From TrEMBL:
It is an enzyme of class 2 (transferase). It comes from Micromonospora echinofusca. The keyword Magnesium applies. The keyword Transferase applies. This is Thiamine-phosphate synthase.
Length: 208
């Protein structure tokens, strides 16, 4: 399996956003370093998730980028995505691994070392760790864990740790120093005036 990309772009399907335009800007810059996670709002239908994921898989294939699907693993399988990402309200990591198969990329959300180690033992191949900072992109999150929280999780596992939550290029050096392998962003790219440039800034900070 090729190594996991370090820059994870999570689709922003909120009203007024254009996730495919952001993706088209980011892909030529980040290419195989980009992991695109198709994340739709909870009220989106499976058909809407499928239609978006199918288009993302096709775009990613042109650049050797990786497409994952958040939550809806049946959609991941249906579109031939490389894998999926699950959290506390989704299938447990072990069940997700059984659904996706042994070779798929499987991300699991973790905020502290104990649950992180459990997720890895159950089959997670990377961890999404956060929220690192405050974010307006997702409601109901616990308090930010900052680089210190990322450090605690990274020290407890032997899979890539992807830091998430209000992450900007300015945060990346401290997150890497804490043991993060990469970062996952919504707003830093979706809200950027120039998403291609913002992609290049994030990659530069990641040392890619
Ligand atoms: C890389 C990454 N990390 C964490 C999450 C959050 O997943 P989850 O806790 O299941 O919340 P939702 O994204 O499903 O609302 C993620 N998606 N990606
Ligand atoms: C889905 C998710 N899970 C934890 S924070 C977050 C949102 C990340 O978005 P942003 O990069 O805009 O803070
Ligand atoms: Mg989820």
């Amino acid at each position: 399996m090729p190594s996991l990309g370090r820059l994870h772009l999570i689709t922003d399907t909120r009203p007024g956003r254009d996730p495919l335009a952001v993706l088209r800007a980011a892909l030529p810059v980040a290419r195989a370093e980009l992991v695109v996670q198709v994340r739709v709002t909870d009220d989106a239908t499976d058909r809407e998730a499928y239609d978006l994921a199918r288009r993302v898989v096709a775009l990613c294939a042109r650049y050797d980028a990786t497409c994952l699907v958040n939550d809806r693993l049946h959609v991941a399988l249906a579109v031939g995505a490389a894998g999926g990402h699950v959290g506390a309200d989704d299938l447990p990591a072990g069940a997700a691994r059984r659904v996706l198969g042994a070779t798929a990329v499987l991300g699991a959300t973790a905020r502290e070392p104990g649950t992180a180690a459990e997720a890895v033992a159950a089959g997670a191949s990377y961890l999404g760790v956060g929220p690192c900072n405050a974010t307006s992109t997702k409601d109901g999150l616990p308090a930010p864990i900052g680089p210190a929280g990322v450090r605690a999780v990274a020290a407890a596992v032997n899979v890539p740790v992807v830091a998430i939550g209000g992450v900007t290029a300015a945060d990346v050096p401290a997150l890497l120093a804490a043991g993060a392998y990469g970062v996952a962003v919504v707003g830093a790219l979706s809200g950027a005036a120039d998403p291609a440039r913002a992609t290049a800034e994030l990659l530069g900070a990641l040392g890619c």
